[in-house]
Each structure stands twice: as C-alpha cells, then as structure tokens.
C-alpha cells in the first residue's frame, strides 16, 4: 500500500480537510480546486491590501481628507485657523512684502488665503484707494524711489489710523531715530458701542412708560396693518429710541474715545479711555496706562495714536 502526499500551490490555508491517504489514487493526484476558484482567491488577496491602503489614505484620525482641498479651504481639520488668525496672517504677509520687501509665503498660498477670507466675508482683503496708495508708497520707499514726501506719508498714515484701518497697525517696534519702543493704537469700536447700552435701556424704558400712560396708543400704532406698521416702526419708533439713547450718552459722556493696543514690552493688549464723564476730564490727549500683563508703564497718545514707554522705562 502506497501513500502519496500532494502539496497545494496556494499560500492560503484551507479549512476543508483534504484526504490524501487513498490506495486507489496514483502519485499524480492533485487537490480538488478548480482554476476559476484559484483566480478568485488570488483576486481577493490582492484586493484586501489595496482596500486597506485606500481607507488609510481617505481617513486620518477619523476625519475625511480630500487631497484636492486647498490648505486654507479645508473644513474638516481640527487645526483650522479662525477668521481672526487668517486676517492677521494676511496683514503680516502684506506688511512684510510692502514694508520689508520680503515674501513670507508663495503667491499661490497668498491667493488661497485671500480667496478664503473673501468667502468668509472679511473686509480686510478689500482695500480702499487710500490703503492701496499707502502700500504703494511704502513699497516705493523700500525700493529707494519714494513717491510721497515724509509729510504726505505721515498725513496719509494718520488719516488711515483715524479711519480705523488695520493696514497701518504694525505692532511693537523700535525707532532708531528716537531710540524708543512704541506700537500703534486702534479704536475699540466694540467697547464704544457698549457705552451706549445703558442709555438704550433707559430709552426703551421711557418708550414703554409713555406707551403705558397713553393707554397703549403706541402699541396700537405698531399693530396697524402693513405697510403702516412697518413705516411707523422703522421710521418713527426706532429712530426716536436711537436718538434718545445717543442724546443721553452724550449728556453724560462727552467726546469719548476708547483706544486699544499691544504693550511694546510683552504684547498684551491694553485699553484706555479718553473723554469727559459728567464734568471730570482726563489729562488731555495722553494717558498713563499700566500693562495688565507685565506691569510696564506706558503712555497712550490719542493724537498720534501711538503707545510709547516713558523716559527710563524698560522695554
């Protein structure tokens, strides 16, 4: 009695037992696998690693990644920049190119960043004619061919500061002429808006009180059929409340201005108030402010819109 052992050509292990001990089979016996089945098994073995590699490239850390999405347009990345961070990066790129003549990013990256800010509705990328003129003058000065005199340049820069332009805000820096460290001031419109909130609450209270003592005649006018209700609300009631709120604010706080800027020493943003509250006025156009971060004494100048350190102050 002879025993023959035949080895299959497949590396995959079969779970079905193969009976190789048979006296009636010759030495030329082969396993009972069809040619079509062997091709399907090979195809499965080849497709498994391909599918695994596709899944790994399509998902990174549980999120979908599309290689066609531009760096600034990806909406699935956890490290996506906020609008404020992108605006700051855009302004830094503009200032570095126009002031120093250096490019901190490629043209493609700059265009992608600008397009993303435009889609987000940012107003930073929409430059006015004065801002474009200022940047062109800065670039011409760096190249050695100034197109504006120093007086015209300073006048244009001050005008942009008064208009609240962020292009002229360069951050903390050092002057070689005066040997001082200073930074720019900007108007804090949000805090100036908050100053009108108390007067607005008082104006609304007076409005409802007047409605109550007149037997809800104002409410009756607000409930008139359209378009009379719309006209009375937006062309009579709302303007009256706004005018009363602004008048009350100006009665208590006169010629007020709130400026903010980074500390020249540590970069912490500090705020200072300029104006007259009732009959108490501040000391002209300058305020002494102590930094909330490092405790450095600073001088806020509302005329030049600059933060400087006093004589002998450390930077």
Automatic annotation (TrEMBL):
Domain of life: Eukaryota
TM segment ranges: 189-210, 230-253
A single GO molecular function term of this UniProt record: oxidoreductase activity, acting on iron-sulfur proteins as donors
Xref: InterPro entries: PGRL1
Keyword Transmembrane among record annotations: yes
Organism whose genome encodes this protein: Capsella rubella
GO cellular component terms given for this protein: chloroplast thylakoid membrane
Alphabetical GO biological process terms: photosynthetic electron transport in photosystem I
Protein name: PGR5-like protein 1A, chloroplastic
Keyword set, alphabetical order: Membrane, Transmembrane, Transmembrane helix
Keyword Membrane carried by entry: yes
């Amino acid at each position: 009695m002879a025993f023959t052992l035949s080895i299959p050509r497949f590396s995959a292990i079969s779970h079905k037992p193969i009976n190789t001990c048979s006296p009636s089979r010759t030495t030329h016996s082969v396993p009972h696998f069809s040619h079509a089945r062997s091709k399907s098994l090979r195809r499965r073995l080849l497709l498994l690693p391909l599918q695994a590699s596709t899944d790994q490239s399509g998902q990174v850390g549980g999120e979908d990644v599309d290689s066609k999405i531009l760096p600034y347009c990806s909406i699935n990345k956890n490290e996506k920049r906020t609008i404020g961070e992108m605006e700051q990066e855009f302004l830094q790129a503009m200032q570095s190119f126009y002031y120093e003549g250096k490019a901190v990013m490629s043209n493609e990256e700059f265009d992608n960043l600008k397009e993303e800010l435009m889609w987000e509705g940012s107003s930073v990328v929409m430059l006015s004619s004065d801002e474009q003129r200022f940047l062109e003058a800065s670039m011409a000065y760096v190249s050695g061919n100034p197109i504006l005199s120093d007086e015209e340049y300073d006048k244009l820069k001050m005008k942009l500061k008064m208009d609240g332009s962020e292009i002229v805000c360069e951050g903390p820096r050092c002057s070689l002429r005066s040997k001082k460290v200073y930074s720019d001031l900007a108007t804090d419109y949000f805090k100036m808006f908050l100053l009108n909130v108390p007067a607005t609450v008082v104006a609304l209270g007076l409005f409802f009180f007047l409605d109550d003592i007149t037997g809800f005649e104002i409410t009756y006018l607000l409930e008139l059929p359209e378009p009379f209700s719309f006209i009375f609300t937006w062309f009579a009631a709302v303007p009256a409340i706004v005018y009363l709120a602004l008048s009350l604010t100006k009665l208590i706080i006169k010629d007020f201005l709130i400026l903010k800027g980074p500390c020249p020493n540590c970069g912490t943003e500090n705020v200072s108030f300029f104006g007259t509250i009732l009959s108490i006025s501040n000391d002209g156009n300058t305020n002494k402010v102590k930094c909330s971060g490092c405790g450095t004494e600073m001088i806020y100048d509302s005329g030049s819109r600059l933060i400087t350190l006093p004589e002998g102050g450390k930077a």
